[in-house]
Design goal:
This protein is of the alpha/beta class and 261 residues long. Strands 3-4-2-1-5-6 form a 6-stranded parallel β-sheet, sandwiched between helices. It has a domain of 156 residues: 3-Layer(aba) Sandwich (Undecaprenyl pyrophosphate synthetase), CATH 3.40.1180. The N and C termini lie far apart (45 Å). The protein contains 9 helices and 6 strands.
């Protein structure tokens, strides 16, 4: 992707245009992961049912997915539904699943136009048959796309993922002496994808909420007070620009320039 392709969707003179022009397209994060938080608070502030916050958040998903693809991000993972979210009221869970199915039906053409490959990560076998059918259709319809990989984390938990990977190692007969970090990574839901370079969390909460626990070991974390339904391209570009200003040392020490006389 290029600046020109990104600017095609930005009105001339908009604040987003200035942000887009600051982006270094040679130093983009390979993988962005987002904890989409604040739907309930967004609805409460407007005296609306919680489901209206989830509904409003769909527009944010659309904007972030298309902007990430146009930027040239290799992979995008959105935390849509955790293993803990089943504890929420049945009416809310049912509405969330209905919104997910509706999103896939309405956005599939746009996903294909942007050459995006859609994938689901999580314990999908525990989802209902109608949801599984919709997810399978989306994955099959985009399987041939070669652009950004768009992961939806659904019925997902970071600890559960690590347990599932350990079980796969046992089932595959991998001896403990032969198991290293690289091999273990290939047993995770995100096998074959780079680990996230940038983790974004909306609504100002300062926690990772059991999300991609293995993969975010060295991710740069960017938190915004913006609630997810209000999160747009502008905020994504701000996060990318903040990431590009970070000094990533991966636990090492930055070399000190040699002193000259």
């Amino acid at each position: 992707m290029s600046l020109e392709q990104l600017l095609e969707t930005i009105p001339r003179g908009a604040p987003d245009e200035a942000l887009a022009r600051e982006v270094n397209f040679e130093a983009l994060p390979r993988h962005i992961a987002i904890i989409m938080d604040g739907n309930g608070r967004w609805a409460a502030q407007r005296h609306l049912p919680r489901v209206e916050g989830h509904r409003a958040g769909i527009e944010s998903v659309r904007d972030v997915v298309e902007t990430s693809a146009r930027l040239g991000i290799g992979a995008l993972t959105l935390y849509a539904f955790s293993v803990e979210n089943w504890k929420r009221p049945v009416t809310e869970v049912t509405a969330l699943m209905a919104l997910l199915k509706r999103y896939l039906r309405l956005e599939l053409d746009a996903i294909n136009r942007n050459n995006i490959r859609f994938q689901v990560i999580g314990r999908t076998d525990e989802l209902s048959a109608d949801v599984l059918q919709e997810l399978a259709a989306g994955q099959e319809a985009t399987a041939g796309n070669s652009g950004m990989t768009f992961n939806i984390a659904l019925n997902y938990g970071g600890r559960a993922e690590i347990v599932d990977a350990a079980r796969r190692a046992i089932d595959a007969g991998i001896a403990s002496a032969d198991l290293d970090e690289q091999k273990f990574s290939q047993l995770l839901y995100t096998a074959g994808q780079p680990d996230p370079d940038l983790l974004i969390r909306t609504s100002g909460e300062m926690r990772v909420s059991n999300f991609l626990l293995w993969q975010i070991a060295y991710a740069e974390i960017w938190v915004t007070d913006t609630l997810w339904p209000d999160f747009r391209r502008k905020h994504l570009l701000e996060a990318v620009l903040a990431y590009q200003k970070r000094d990533r040392r991966y636990g090492g020490i930055k070399p000190t320039p040699a002193l000259t006389r």
